[in-house]
Amino acid sequence: MSEIALAADFAIIIVVATIVGLIARQTGQPTIIAYILTGLILGPVMFDIVTEEGLVESMAELGLGFLLFLLGMKMRFDDIREILRPIINIAVWQTILQTALALAVAWALGFDPTEVVIIALATVFGATPIIVKILTDKDEITALPGKIDVGVLIVQDIYLVIILALLGADELGSASEIATTLGVIAVMMTFIGVFSIASSRYLLPKLFRRIADNKDVFLVVSIAWAFLFIAVSEQFDLSLEVGAFLAGISLAQLPYSKELEDRITPITDFFILVFFASIGLRLAADDLLAYWLEAIVASVVLMVGNFWIMFYLIDREDFSVETSFLGAINMVQVSEFSLVVGALAVQQGYIDTDVLGYLSLMALMTMSVSTYIINYNHTLYARSKPWFSRFESESKTDIDLKSYDDHAIAIGYDEVTQQVLPLLEEEYGDVVIIDRQTDHIEELEEEGRYDYIYGDFRHGEIRKESNLKNASFVLSSTVQLDVNKALLNEVSDDATVFVEAERIDDARELYDRGAAYVIMSTYLTAEKLSEYLEWYISDPASFDEAVERDIERITERARSDPTDRQRRRTGPGGDGDD
Amino acid sequence: MAMTDLITALAVVFVTAGVFLLIANQFSLSPIPFYLLAGLVTGTIVAEPQLIELAQWGIAFLVFTFGFRTDFSSVESVLRDAETAAVTQLLVVGPIAFGVAHLVFGFGLENAVYFAIAATLSSTIVGARELEQEIRSNLVHGRLASSVHFFDDLLAIGLIVVLSAEQYTSTLVTSKIGYGVIFLLVALLIYRHGFPLLVRLAGGSDELVMMGSISILIGFIAGAELAGVSIVVGAFAAGIAIRGDDVSALGVQNGIASIRDFFVAIFFVTLGALVSIPSASVLVVALTLAVLVLVANPLVLMLAFVYEGYDARTAFLSSTSLNQISELSLVVAIQALLLGSISETLFDAIILAAAATMILTSVARRYEEPVYRSLIERLVAGRQTRKIDERSAVDDDLEDHIVIVGYGRQGRRVVETCERLGREYVVMDNDPVLWDDVRSECHNYVFGDALSTYPWTKARVSEASLVVSTVDHRPVSEAVLEVETDADVILRSETAAEATALLEQGATYVSVPNVLAGDHLTELVYAIGTNKTDTETLKDDHLDYFDALERHGFASRGRWGDTE
Fold first, then answer.
1. With an 8 Å Cβ cutoff, are B500 and A532 in contact?
2. For the Cation/H+ exchanger transmembrane domain, which residue ranges apply (chain A) (predicted)?
3. Containing domain of residue B514, as a range?
């Protein structure tokens, strides 16, 4: 059969990356490292069987676009509002001090001036995916050090986008040209940025309100939105990344962004693998090892230096010593963005591949080490606490962050759950509702009484957002067995979980898996109906009385529920997927 | 960074698709035909060879997800439901279409087969979307239609295996089938041992499980290419290999679905873009195809359903949601195009007819009720009455009885109560699957559709004292209220708002399971909160209650769980 093999190079990369990834997983290493290694294995460094051309190049670029889109989408200003001021202080100074440090290190190691500048620009960033991933797994992302780190990373992302735009420009010969380019970039970015913010305020809420309930349309229109910005950026000679990032920001402020994030993440994972592998593919063995000694020296100096810079800066904002220590030690690695910047610089001819090799080696080393550091951050603090206690002082206190704990979660806002919510609020304090229908969310917004999250409970991101693991009570009004099973799998053992089921066998299984109670409305109704019928036949007075009482309740409910819901209850899981 | 041509092409594809989807969404139509239209509009701008490679990924992912969603435990009940109708349709419409293509349009044998496939198979994606509500409320016609869709999908996969042979000699075709079977066996092996191992090695990383699943997909596709069979077969087998019932599969399948949606959009848009400006002959072929799909298919299916014993309305409603070209027929077409074995004219015609029928099917559904009433009902009325008479048993002197609509779990419960209290009743249901039960368990019964009038006459509703409907479907509830009788009416509805409306229209009582469950829930939470009971007791009581229900035969039966 003479059809096109599904892009053999692309396919080989994915399969090998998966295998390396599985091996890396056994040693606790993040997948990014596995992907770069995959590139090295398949590229000129080892077997030289895959080239970074054609479809692979396009896929890598697409991966980068999606990564920035996703990054923009995570920029919810609400998330860091509480600690915005200290974060901006920390981030700005961190960028300046770390650039200075990296500059000094690179200069001391004897790189030439252009290389020194690129290296300094490239090594400032913390590795967002690694930090976010590990902290999330450890349930520390919403703790104060985690919040500070995420806040700083967000500010860094803006800085990254400016650098990318700058490097993407064609003429950077002299200082005045750089200044002009920066100016142009600033104007263009402001222009697109204003458009993005204006649309996020006026156009997008209306647009997405209409389409968010339709899964296919929701995803494809969002991707179209990203591509629209990419195309516009190209018209302005800005890079693809800038457009994707700004498109992401404009969607981030919508209530639907968590849900979207969850749908875009897999696509990003899929393509970004190719991007990281393509970095490995570009390097020859001598590139990678050209500056191996320098890379080791720089890695050690930067890791130590970065720690102290971050520690000093967080400490200066009067957070507690523990917070400063944890916030700082999470951020010691050189990020994958240094490779993004490096790869772009190579393409524009500012540096050679051996410098990219140097950056890659540094990224590989610092990321693998920092994985263990973040994993054992509390142990490290406990060990070094006696020494660090010298920084303690009375005035240092942590800000109290609002986070859900021992709270109640209701999955689905409908007639089954609505009624019990006040009782739950009384018992557990915080009530969070997860629902995937825009009209339900609007109702909740109007009422303003409970917290809510728009999204499909099937998505991990949504479950994390509601802090499911620490909930004391969970009520699920979906009858979808897979959703309820996933729920029971993830809640803590002492949580009380009420779920709904349609069939007896499902109910039994849910009990086996730890449900406290399984609601079965069909049987409940059958029971009641036959009871009423009995009265109807043998005791009409009781029947009339009961019916009257019930009708009163029903009309009352219908009144308290302002929207006549035409659509049927689909549960938060919505419809499977098709 | 200068954008590669591919990124530019993708930007065009997605921005156009986005605009068209907004239109589709505005009119609540299925997205697929709008992708095709977007492709028609963009046309040659996106005729990028790399885009066709990406489109192939779209096919692979489409079939891949179909593979892991396939519920093999339901195959049996699907065959029971759809066998006769689907096979009849295949044997009648298939040859007609083949004949038309071969004799009238003068296509060669191979092209005539493609034409016949396009004419016969119907689309699950479009159909399931249209019938979403019916399938969820488990109405008989929703169930029937989705069974036929499922049957068609499996058939399509089988056909693709056979059609990937370059020559139709029996040895070659047999060897293709042989490969297909080998793939399935390997897939089952991976399902049993390989995939669980992958999940274990991934150590809780959804990303790795997902990439591992995609690697399995790639492995199967590579295998398919080596063996010279269609990648569709490989992708389907790969889907079976990663079917996990484990909870970890949930996140992974969602992830794959996102990636699929991305590639599938590219696939359909590219497909539309491959259509050149249609000539007169293309339009004629497309029109013929559309007529076959829109008229011949539903007609044959409807007759088959009626023959099987479904009432005219159910037969009509199921068959009208089966009148569109299947997305798998599009896969067959593009595969044939890549093989060079399909004529340009036919390819264009199939795509155009697909877009047209997919849109028309949604539009037509809005008028099916009036069409049924004004046309079909008159045609079949006499015959229907005879059939209802044949199949029903109601005592002639029945009076002051209770008419029970729906013989699901609630219906059975109501019947039991009537029998216990010695009250006469008539059960009314239209699902042939329940016939044997009704016949053996009830004294008086009517097999008919509550939306028609004759079954009510047959049930002697004018003499009845009470009508209890356990069907949660607004049109049925309203039909019950319109029946001419002095009897009290008890209905069922999903929401309090709908219930209020029904009460205003004259219902004596409306039961709302959700409100009931809400009340029950509040009581329980309160009782637990004030330590009046504990969850252990609740659970034990509930499990005992299940046992009691099952002893009395009130548990749900079969795949569809008869929610009434």
1. no
2. 14-371
3. 395-551
Considering its fold, how many domains does chain B have in total? 2
Q: Would B556 be classed as within a structural domain? A: no
- Looking at chain A from residue 491 to 530, which residues have their Cβ under 8 Å from any Cβ of chain B? 496, 498, 500, 502-504, 507-508, 511, 515-519, 521-530
Question: Which residues of chain B does A137 touch, with a Cβ-Cβ cutoff of 8 Å?
Answer: 204
Assigned domain for B421 exists: yes
Do B433 and B496 belong to one domain? yes
What digits encode the pLDDT tens for the residues B533-549?
A: 777 777 888 888 878 77
Supply the CATH classification number for the domain A408-560. 3.40.50.720
CATH of the domain at B511: 3.40.50.720
A258 phi, psi to nearest 5 deg: -60, -45
pLDDT over 70, % of chain A? 86
Q: Are residues B353 and B419 in the same domain?
A: no
The tokens of B236 are what?
């389907």
Find all residues with CB under 8 Å of A278, minimum gap 6, and list them.
Answer: A39, A52, A56, A57, A60, A343
B406 and B319, same structural domain?
A: no
CATH number at residue B100: 1.20.1530.20
Please name the residue of chain A whose CA is at the shortest distance from the CA of residue B561: A503
Report the chain A residue with the minimal C-alpha distance to residue B51: A55
Backbone angles phi, psi at B531, to 5 degrees: 60, 25
Which among A5, A500, A550 is the nearest to B509, CB-wise? A550
Q: Can you tell me the distance from the alpha carbon of B229 to that of B483, in angstroms, rounded to the nearest whole number? A: 59
* B524 near A CB under 8 A: yes
In this structure, are B346 and B486 located in the same domain? no
| Single pTM value for the model | 0.78
Give the closest residue to A52 by CA, choosing from A36, A34, A71. A36
- DSSP label at A291? T
Query: Under a CB-based contact definition with an 8 Å cutoff, are residues A492 and A470 in contact?
Result: yes
Query: In this structure, is residue B297 part of a structural domain?
Result: yes
CA nearest A476 in B: which residue? B521
Residues B360 and B411 in one domain: no
* Interface mutation vs chain B, best among A2, A4, A58, most B CBs within 10 Å: A58
C-alpha to C-alpha distance for A566 and A209, rounded to whole angstroms = 16
Q: Is A52 on the interface with B (CB under 8 A)?
A: no
Instruction: Identify residue A126 by its one-letter amino acid code.
Output: G
Express each pLDDT in A476-531 by its tens digit.
Answer: 888 788 788 888 888 888 888 888 888 888 888 888 888 888 888 878 888 888 88
C-alpha distances in Å from residue A55, one per residue of A10, A228, A294, A365, B540: 7, 21, 34, 29, 60
**Quick one: tokens of B72?**
């093999």
Q: Output the CA torsion B125→B127→B129→B133 (10° steps).
A: -150
What is the number of CB-based contacts under 8 A between chain A and chain B?
363
Answer for the pair B468, B414: CB distance below 8 angstroms, yes or no: yes
Chain A contacts in chain B segment 265-324 (CB below 8 A): 265
φ, ψ (nearest 5 deg) of residue B489: -130, 125
**CA atoms of A321 and A398, how far apart (whole Å):** 9
Contact list in B for residue A25 (CB cut-off 8 A) is: 201-203, 205, 208
ipTM value for the complex = 0.78
Shared domain for B21 and B69, answered yes or no, is: yes
User: Given pLDDT bands bounded at 50, 70 and 90, which one contains residue A577?
Assistant: very low
Domain ranges of chain A: 8-384, 408-560
A8-384 under CATH 1.20.1530.20, yes or no: yes
Closest to A490 (Cα-Cα) out of A506, A474, A509: A474
Which residues from chain B sit within 8 angstroms of residue A483, using beta carbons? Answer: 250
CB contact under 8 A, A61 and B4: yes
Return d(Cα A14, Cα A7) in angstroms, integer.
11
